[in-house]
Design brief:
Tesmin/TSO1-like_CXC; TSO1-like; 65% helix; mainly alpha; Protein tesmin/TSO1-like CXC 2; 40 helices; DNA-binding; 2 strands
Length: 763
DNA sequence: GAGTTTGAAACT
DNA sequence: CAGTTTCAAACTC
């Protein structure tokens, strides 16, 4: 904000323009050199205070690997766009850049966004990118703290999307710088940079120019750049990797994607800011990409106002996010919807595909559902950021940390988005939701969020007019009592809360409250259930991983429910009780505290007796719709011969789908090998629909047994075992006639529980 | 839909 | 840290 950067920035730019070399470059391409400076500053401003420690992310390698491809693609894209667009983009980009330079804080940002929107006409070619951006899940934005990054992730669409991602990153950085994130280290550095900026700019320009020339051969460019650049890049990648690590897998994936294109630039920017030395390849990329980026970014901003990811502790991001959000508020709703939907889906898809496949391949044109929109905002949790942070703290991988409840939340929100047709206003507000970091991870928590009743409503209504929402009367939705608040989501219309302060309007209050709560308990917004297995990983490993593999962080304290009802967070989360639990008379079907998980048929029987009626009834009601997770769980259950089991199972697990969660975890992984599809489960469901889901859906009840025997995915078996009904099936006396598969599955379950690596992060 | 039960969250 | 209160979901009728 206050930083002297502006003046500095402004001068260097002019110099660039003046220089013959720059002129030459400019003539060649519309790219604006000026941004590079900002980028560096922004990075510095960003300083990534939060991410620093997280280098553990497994994706890092991917980033590097993909870098070349992406860059190459990006460059190609840029070329194509430039050719097609001609000079149109340049002016726009210039506007954006100029605005950015001038802009100090949020207001400026808003202006920028407006400008972008206004200029859309010229930018239309970019709209494709915008679409991609629209597809980006907000959540990712929150998580990363950089909505743009999310936008990048959304790039499910073609190469354009990739370019967008890079641009998004760049812009994000720029915005952050604009917003005044500089406050921290940058200020000091900036002083240093003051003189150096010019040099840096030149270098960046030169490097950028080189890229331009070399476009087609990204590899060549990299090689030419020299060892220094490489080292820098590595560092950069590391930094981003660390950031990514915090984020849930999907987010991470998105980030990676974006980073791959733009991250290098960001990293470089940071380095440059700090060292004010050499512009790196990334900067080049940024420059090259910038023109398109500007347009895209503006569009993205419009689409993703959100972002305020608010990790309670990490203000730099939050501030940025806020700025973004506010911006978003001014933006058009329709796009938001699109973007959100697309994002969610794309994110899920991308996440699924990403690890194995480079994003480019992923880009299925997942057609974002334009329809859904509103719920999105709410669904995306502000707190997701917190989750990510928590994951950092814990050192557990993001994916692992996912809580079913959060996932459900996400799913629900997604569903709501799709289904809800609420007024655009709501959408906007929702979009503002500060943090929705790890939607993916959150799936576990979702369970808690989505009460069966609500779900029923949602399901029954078909469109799901009502997203699952809270019903708070006295907490003002500013306490963890509130599911929405706990999930990091703003309350939405469907909520029947009174005196609700958990709305974008009261963002400040919400954030402050969150901080308070987090100060009390840093993991307050972290997923309550820790999964040991990543969804994606598990495909092969699934057999061993059951819901039991996950455990409630703190454990339950049940006294009367015997951990057989949703009162029990462990049960609700679809996980077994653990040593951490202080429950009495634990009969948790997912695993008792004492370690005897499902084995005891007796326990199951008890559970069954206790819950069968309700379950069956509910299952019937619910059966019609369910989140992916639920379906998955059901499917898993479906393995059971009778339909009742199927329906019952999900129900039994809980409408929220905890069982599904667990199942999801396994299923999701198995189905698509998705990473942590959980959160986006829905998206995955909609888009790709996990194989399992489809498979099961198609499969008739009678067929199920065969399926079990044949595929007998471990996850499924586990699920069965988890479900009380499955137990029924399993009991020896019953089993006599039943196929061995069932029994075996059961046995597996039992074994699996003890074997669970439990909480240890895979990667 | 109202009322009860339950256990987490919040408070002391 | 333990005990109590508050709260909203889960559950029952």
């Amino acid at each position: 904000m206050d930083t002297p950067e502006r003046s500095q920035i402004g001068t260097p730019v002019s110099k660039f323009e003046e220089s013959p070399f720059s002129n030459f470059i400019n003539s060649l391409s519309p790219i604006n050199p000026t941004k590079t400076i900002h980028v560096s500053q922004t990075f510095g401003s960003l300083s990534f205070t939060s991410p620093p420690s997280v280098f553990t992310s497994p994706h890092v390698s991917l980033q590097k690997d993909n870098k070349f491809l992406r860059r190459h693609l990006v460059s190609d894209l840029l070329k194509a766009q430039l050719q097609s667009d001609g000079g149109n983009k340049d002016p726009i980009a210039e506007e954006d850049t100029s605005a950015e330079h001038q802009s100090d804080g949020l207001p400026d940002v808003q202006v920028r966004g407006e400008e972008g929107s206004g200029s859309e006409g010229s930018a239309k070619p970019l709209e494709d990118t915008s679409d991609c951006a629209t597809e980006l899940p907000r959540e990712l934005k929150y998580d990363s703290g950089s909505p743009r990054c999310k936008a990048v992730t959304s790039s499910s669409s073609d190469t354009r999307c990739e370019t967008n991602t890079s641009t998004a990153l760049i812009q994000f950085v720029q915005e952050s710088s604009i917003q005044g994130s500089f406050q921290t280290e940058l200020n000091s550095q900036e002083v240093k940079d003051g003189n150096e900026e010019e040099a840096c700019d030149w270098q960046s320009l030169i490097s950028g120019s080189s890229d331009l020339f070399i476009f087609d051969s990204p590899n060549v460019t990299e090689t030419s750049k020299g060892s220094l650049q490489k080292s820098q890049q590595q560092e950069e990648t590391n930094v981003f990797a660390s950031l990514l690590a915090r984020f849930p897998t999907e987010q991470a994936y998105h980030l990676q994607n974006s980073l791959q294109l733009g991250s290098t630039g960001c990293n470089e920017a940071l380095e440059t800011a700090q060292h004010s030395t050499q512009p790196t390849e990334e900067t080049e990329l940024q420059q090259t990409d910038q023109p398109s980026e500007n347009l895209e970014i503006t569009s993205v901003n419009e689409f993703f106002p959100t972002d305020s990811g608010e990790k309670p502790g990490k203000q730099p991001f939050s501030n940025l996010h806020r700025g973004l959000r506010r911006r978003c508020l001014t933006f058009e709703m329709p796009r938001m919807k699109r973007s959100i939907d697309g994002v969610l889906f794309s994110s899920s898809l991308s996440s699924l595909q990403n690890e194995d496949n480079p994003p480019s391949s992923n880009r299925q044109p997942i057609t974002p559902r334009v329809e859904s929109s509103r719920c999105i905002f709410p669904g995306i949790g502000l707190h997701l950021n917190a989750l990510a942070a928590a994951s950092k703290d814990s050192g557990i991988s993001n994916t692992e940390m996912l809580s079913p409840a959060s996932q459900e939340h996400l799913i629900n929100s997604l569903a709501c988005l799709r289904n809800d047709e609420g007024p655009a206003e709501n959408v906007i507000e929702n979009a503002e939701d500060p943090s929705q970091t790890s939607v993916f991870a959150a799936t576990e928590d979702l369970n808690s969020n989505s009460p069966k009743k609500k779900r029923r409503k949602f399901e029954t209504t078909g469109e799901g007019e009502s997203c699952k929402r809270c019903n708070c009367k006295k907490s003002k939705c500013l306490k963890l009592y509130c599911e929405c608040f706990a999930a990091g989501v703003y309350c939405v219309e469907p909520c029947s809360c009174l005196d609700c302060f958990n709305k974008p309007i009261h963002e400040d209050t919400v954030l402050a409250t969150r901080k308070q709560i987090e100060s009390r308990n840093p993991l307050a917004f972290a997923p309550k259930v820790i999964r040991t297995s990543d969804s994606a990983q598990e495909i092969g490993e699934d057999t061993t991983r059951t819901p039991a593999s996950a455990r409630h962080k703190r454990g339950c304290n049940c006294k009367k429910s015997n951990c057989l009802k949703k009162y029990c967070e462990c049960y609700q989360g679809g996980v077994g009780c653990s040593i951490n639990c202080r429950c009495e008379g634990c009969k948790n079907a997912f695993g008792r505290k004492d370690g005897s998980s499902m084995i005891g048929t007796e326990v199951e029987m008890d559970k069954l007796q206790a819950s069968e009626k309700s379950i069956l009834d509910r299952s019937l009601d619910i059966h019609g719709f369910q989140d992916d997770d639920d379906q998955n769980s059901e499917f898993a259950i479906p393995m059971t011969p009778s339909r009742l089991y199927r329906t019952s199972v999900p129900l039994a697990t809980s409408s929220k789908g905890k069982p599904p969660r667990s199942s999801l975890g396994t299923i999701g992984s198995s189905s698509s090998g998705l990473h942590s599809v959980d959160g986006p489960g829905r998206s995955t469901f909609l888009r790709t629909q996990s194989r399992i889901d489809k498979h099961f859906q198609s499969v008739s009840v009678d067929e199920i047994p065969a399926v079990l025997q044949n595929s007998s995915p471990p996850s499924i078996s586990l699920k069965k075992t988890l479900s009380p009904k499955s137990k029924r099936i399993s009991p020896p006396h019953h089993n006599n006639g039943q196929p061995l598969g069932l029994r075996s599955s059961r046995k597996l379950i039992l074994q699996s529980i003890p074997s669970f690596p439990s909480l240890s992060p895979r990667r």
